[in-house]
């Protein structure tokens, strides 16, 4: 029973994959930067994502019994007031992010059952808001069921996201060979297409990349619920 309430490193990895990764981030950043986003992804991984993940992993391992994540770390290393401000700020910036999640589910189901994403646009706003509220409350209830439920849902969601990501890459490469479709990206095999132009416009899109690879700090509170926590979380 005790083992059932503990997470394995594979559960942590899959939950982290869902929290950090998203196919929408690939599409959005490609729309902003084009092929040069390939170089941008490499740079943001080296400069931000890898160091940040190592820092989060170290903090999660150091403060093993701190379940508040970022606010708990700040409280332990600074003051309660600063920890409160950090928690409040973290909550505020997540309000619009969480509010659009149920709407994203509706759009996904619209594509699944109707073949288009127009459900949200063609349905009265009050109805959409009511459905989104019900979905939000439903997932709050799911989250309150405990670690075992989180482990199962995280594993299913993480596995599904991982498979979709692999299929996305495989189909993107194989589609021109499987069909008569031609490559629509101009100068795809030119090195210049992959080199970003470091101007003001480029730097205004960096926040999208940071947003895309952020989120690993959400996993840290589960470090003390992981088997062999000092090793697994790292």
UniProtKB/TrEMBL annotation:
Keyword Zinc-finger appears in the UniProt entry: no
Q: What is the organism of origin for this protein?
A: Lactiplantibacillus plantarum
Q: What is its main location?
A: membrane
Which InterPro entries does its entry note?
AA/rel_permease1, APC_superfamily
- UniProt topology in membrane: Multi-pass membrane protein
Q: What is this protein called in UniProt?
A: Transport protein
Which is an annotated GO molecular function term of this record?
A: transmembrane transporter activity
* Keywords linked to the UniProt accession: Cell membrane, Membrane, Transmembrane, Transmembrane helix, Transport
A cellular component term from Gene Ontology for this protein is: plasma membrane
For the keyword Cell membrane, the answer is yes
List, alphabetically, the PANTHER family matched. Answer: AMINO ACID TRANSPORTER-RELATED, GLUTAMATE_GAMMA-AMINOBUTYRATE ANTIPORTER-RELATED
Any matching Pfam family: AA_permease_2
